[in-house]
Amino acid sequence: MSKNVVPMIHVPDVRATVEWYESIGFDVVAKYGNESDGLGFAIVSFGEGQVMFSQDGEPSSKRRREVDLYVYTEDVDEVYARLKDRVDVVEGPHNTFYGMREVIIRDFNRFWITFGQESVFGTLMNGVSEAKPELVRRAIESGQLKSETLNVALAFVLANQKGDDIVQLLKDAGATPPPEIDVETLRSYAGKYKGEHGPEVEITVKDDRLYAAPGAQEPMSLWPLDQQTFKPIAVDGATITFNVEDGMTVGLTFVQDGFRIELRRI
Asked: Among the listed ranges 40-49, 155-164, 180-189, 247-256, which one has the minimum average pLDDT value?
């Protein structure tokens, strides 16, 4: 038997749980009775993934249960359209900063199930980082990419010499090279920044490029959109703008999908 990990969740009613999972598209692999008229144990599957259910679980009305399930699927929006009127939706279809498109629902026992697929942004960045023109083309043809995202993708490809075919695809889609920024300007942005309610980020310069490290996380590269505004390469829909007063950098503004936070230089 090949190595694998299968979660086992204890639930109050195995039979009712299995029937609910069947109703949203899972398949029953095995069912075992208990000493009464119910089920003591069952296995369900979704694609190649499996989940085990065992009896004697405790009911709960908590907002978040002890276990979440993450289900990879091919079409999150189809899942949402099919289930939205029949299940408790925690969060409708949305794109995440880590390159996934997700929808979150609750199951029969209030456990969270997240259905996820690679977002268009994730497809694009995988395509440029792995030098796969077919992925870049697929992302562009979706028509969902912002011009700033295309520009940053082009900058990444040019800097890392990922291939003329990808460069041409991005230029044909309207991408333009990033502005030139001198090293002294980049160095003027380096330093530590802190928000009013605690978030911190450190900006550094390496190989004539800016990097941002939020908290204890690994630094991520920042690519210029103009002389003061940069886009984190790995975060969709986000920008960092450095605030300059009288020639001195005094803070930065982080914006992502309408969320805005101000950080002061410390």
From this structure: 155-164
Amino acid identity for residue 143 in this structure: G
Residue that is written with structure tokens 């209030």 in the block: 110
Of the candidates 172, 161, 111, the residue with the CA atom closest to the CA atom of residue 137: 172
Contact in structure between 225 and 213 (CB atoms under 8 Å): no
Q: Domain range holding 165? A: 120-172
What whole-number distance in Å separates Cα of residue 98 and Cα of residue 108? 28
| Total-model pTM | 0.74
Q: How many CA atoms lie within 13 A of 19 on its CB side?
A: 6
One domain, residues 165 and 229: no
The count of other CB atoms within 10 Å of the CB of residue 75 is: 12
- Cβ neighbours of residue 136 under 8 Å, at least 6 residues apart? 124, 127, 128, 153, 166, 169, 170
CATH number for the domain that contains residue 36: 3.30.720.120
What is the three-state SS of 231-251?
Answer: EECCCCCEEEEEEEECCEEEE
Q: Using an 8 Å Cβ cutoff, are 95 and 236 in contact?
A: yes
Two tokens at 237? Answer: 């829909």
